[in-house]
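Our platform keeps sequence and structure together, in a single record for each protein. Such a record has a labelled line for the sequence and another for the backbone structure tokens. The tokens are whole numbers drawn from a learned vocabulary of local backbone shapes. The remainder of this section carries one protein's record, kept here as part of the documentation:
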Amino acid sequence: MHLERVFIDGVRNLTGQKLALAPGANLFFGLNGSGKTSVLEAISLLATGRSFRTFSAKSLIQHDTDQCLVQAHVQYSGARYNLGIQRHRSGAAVLRRDGVNVPSIADLASVLPTVLVDTASLELITGSPEGRRRYLDAILFHVEQMFLESWRRYHRALRQRNAGLRRGTLAQDDVWINELAKTGEALSSTRVSAIAKLAVIFSELAAYLSDALSGIELSFRPGWGAEYDLRAALERSAVSDRKQGFTHAGPHRADIKIAVGGRPAAEVLSRGQLKLAVLALKLAQGRLLTEARELTPVFLVDDIAAELDEHHAKRVCGMLAGSKSQVLLTAVERGDLERLWPAEPPLMFHVEQGAITCLPNGER
């Protein structure tokens, strides 16, 4: 799977920019503020419906325009798709696939799997459980055909129950427990299966990146006590749920625990080691997608030369090159990219004040 052509208009300082991308490595260099990270942001917007840099559409959209547009031709599993997203300052979005409006970002994401590595990725380990659930669910969205429907059914029931709890209208015989227990157990089961596979891949990649990570482990916490099934957990917490107005037990409280020697990785690893652990998680995500679906995602990697020392950056780039995925990688200096990338001559782009120029191979 790879992006063939991309059009970006109105995303920060990028106006009317057209890119023809290679299926392998695409390396973008330019000064800070030139717009190279905005290229990754635009593609991530198309794949996820949101920016990874801001929650506000107003911050994303160029200051003198009312909307931004990202379009791309995507080759996926032997077919070609034309995807587009238009975001307005109001926050409204128009999504299109092959010339037809579609109701959900899932219609775009299903044929444009991406793996993002940026400066905020460290929060995957140091941040809240919500980010780790999103990470796991993004994998399952692509590898488990019925996962999205299970996720939607569970969260629909959860919203209904929580609304009833807040209003105090739920009867003693809680009608939502059956639906939550059924859909929640199914949802959790797929997560447990994915973690079992992911943990093996992650441990291997982490140990390769650094000897200090040779003992790192992943484990899963489903969101309720392991001594009960979900129905029993919901029934046991029913009184406190009514008092506090929300559901305490369930997959919406799940977490991935990342530990070294039984202690939280966030507490025992240095910042540099944490960065490598996050990269191992991201690389493991890509490999699991490839092994489960023979599907190579697009890696969006921002400023790796600033995040890692040269030895480890070269090792990560070698793994990216070996993954056979399409990679979009940014750095300030062209020399950093040429020095770090180990494989065939990559496609090189210079970004300056929002203008992107593809440089012919060999041009200095």
Remarks:
- The longest helix spans residues 176-209.
